[in-house]
């Protein structure tokens, strides 16, 4: 079994981005600027936006964190998005998800200027992705593709089973794995809460990508020998550690890792790749803006 080490690969990517930023500085160009909007006080979301800001500092990007109270109305958030769309100093921005119940997420994502949509969630960018056109690929699926590519995991002609059909991970992942090229050219089955006999499907998979958020859901008996297992689940389970919780994936790692050929750990697998690929999309947004000016 080989570990797909997202921590190491994300560090490599950040070093590559740092070198690109250095070149920009030497040419007297403005460095990329990412803004992140967070509404409310959800502990995990605050951790993730904090990591995004820290990652920007590390690679030499500018960053802006916009914190809004949990009582923010949809109108107020849409106004903030309009400001960020019009702010020429900002190359790309994200709205941290999930949003509070009073806000229509789809309406918010559609309000983001597609040229600044470094999460790749706007329908225009999502459509381009599905049509194999150049665009921002959502950071988590993009990170998974990068891990598969850097470890040389064969995907052509393989059967990939994706568990979970969220707009952030499962749905785009199922599209990307079936696209032409590498990584891709895979035969994809997208499973979800209405799928019957899921173990019958997963035991036939060469590659399993699970994004459910149910700790230890994928058991060894659901996986065939030598399968590639990608764990996108990140659940905080309360314990008596100093932090008060530990991070648990969807995969029963202790036993599944004994059967898998490649597997991502949690933590230290897909999570850090998400942050690295957001930086990559922000660099792309900056470069595209330079090309147009
Ligand atoms: N606007 C967005 N919202 C959300 C996204 C997203 O891509 N865009 N994805 C997730 C959360 N997420 C990024 O925002 C994210 C999740 C996890 C990690 C990560 O590094 N996890 C670590 C563990 C961190 C911890 O201690 O909690 C790991 O797996 O090693 C980074 C980013 C939902 N919302």
TrEMBL record:
Lineage: Bacteria, Pseudomonadati, Bacteroidota, Flavobacteriia, Flavobacteriales
Subunit: Homodimer.
SUPFAM superfamilies: Aminoacid dehydrogenase-like, N-terminal domain (SSF53223), NAD(P)-binding Rossmann-fold domains (SSF51735)
Domain of life, source organism: Bacteria
Family under the similarity heading: Belongs to the tetrahydrofolate dehydrogenase/cyclohydrolase family.
Protein name (Swiss-Prot/TrEMBL): Bifunctional protein FolD
Annotated Tetrahydrofolate dehydrogenase/cyclohydrolase catalytic domain residues: 4-119
One GO cellular component term: cytosol
Record's function text: Catalyzes the oxidation of 5,10-methylenetetrahydrofolate to 5,10-methenyltetrahydrofolate and then the hydrolysis of 5,10-methenyltetrahydrofolate to 10-formyltetrahydrofolate.
PROSITE patterns to which the protein is assigned, alphabetical: THF_DHG_CYH_1, THF_DHG_CYH_2
Pathway entry: One-carbon metabolism; tetrahydrofolate interconversion
A GO biological process held by the record: methionine biosynthetic process
Catalytic activity line of the entry: (6R)-5,10-methenyltetrahydrofolate + H2O = (6R)-10-formyltetrahydrofolate + H(+); (6R)-5,10-methylene-5,6,7,8-tetrahydrofolate + NADP(+) = (6R)-5,10-methenyltetrahydrofolate + NADPH
Organism: Flavobacterium microcysteis
